[in-house]
Amino acid sequence: MAWGPGGTPDLHASRGVPGLDPRAPLPPDGSRRSRILGGDGGGRSILIAIASTAVFFGVIGAVIVNSPGWPSIKEAFFDGEVFADSFPKILERFWVNVFIFCVAEAFVLVFALAIAVLRSLPGPVFLPLRLAAAAYTDVFRGLPTILVILLLGFGAPALELQGLPDSDLFWAIVALVLVYSAYVAEVYRAGIESVHPSQVAAARSLGLSRWQSLRFVVLPQAVRRVIPPLLNDFIGLQKDSALVAVLGGVIEGLRETQIITSARFDFTPYMTLALIYLVITIPMTRFVDWLIQRDRRRRQAGGTL
């Protein structure tokens, strides 16, 4: 650390010195580099970035527009009249996808955490529970989501189970919960295993039981550490809600799109639905990236201290 007049630390003099001020690292030439632009973040770097981006996407656009089949593609996928007519209908049905996502997410959060806790139980007496939890995650991570939806959507109602509904919507949500709980359980388990054993030892030395140590010490830290990957899984769940359309009985966004496409002999409704999904998922993706960067900065600051 460099010191200034009066014994106060001179942070500016410490910039760029390895290990002293990782918050503001500087390259050897003394200029501050931008993580996105790749330069010093000044006006020249911004102009170069804008120009190169414009040239890159301009070339791609020129190749597409000047291709021989572009007129037919434009007519079939980018019809403004069809877009204006189909957008409100698809958006209205898209709320069914939102409902499916919200209900499935609520159950996945709880069920997956229970599976992860079972897989993390120590001792030989809990071996059957660990084996059952491991078998569950192996099976449902190995099956395609659309196959699970088809098996439950067409097979489960035929069992005529008492007390359970036979609607396609119910069994589609059950299928999504089963599949995504297997993935999310592994995310939870990674978070649980990332907590150092000394944390549990310290909690036990203070008189907490094994369950209390798990509940009050391990799980809060584990859940906080895995929030970004959890959100990534839920973005995938939002998109996979469209797979419910394969059952045919649920009129959601994709199924409505297929109906309009069959009636109009035009594929513009697919682009309409794609636009709706992008408007929903891109902000969620950027939010996840921000959380990851914030967590990384927090860990670096903690390591420095």
Helix/strand class: mainly alpha
Number of strands: 0
CATH superfamily of the largest domain: MetI-like
Nearest-integer average pLDDT = 83
> From N to C, what is the helix and strand string?
HHHHHHHHHHHH
Q: State the helical fraction.
A: over 70%
**In angstroms, what is the radius of gyration?**
26 Å
Q: Biggest sheet, open or closed, and with what strands and sense? A: none
CATH level-3 fold name of the largest domain: MetI-like fold
Broad shape: flat
End-to-end CA span: 13 Å
Reported CATH architecture of the largest domain: Orthogonal Bundle
Total number of helices: 12
Q: Care to give the gist of this entry?
A:
The protein is an all-alpha fold and 305 residues long. The chain has helices at 11-14, 43-65, 70-77, 80-120, 127-142, 145-155, 168-194, 197-205, 210-225, 227-240, 253-264, 268-304.
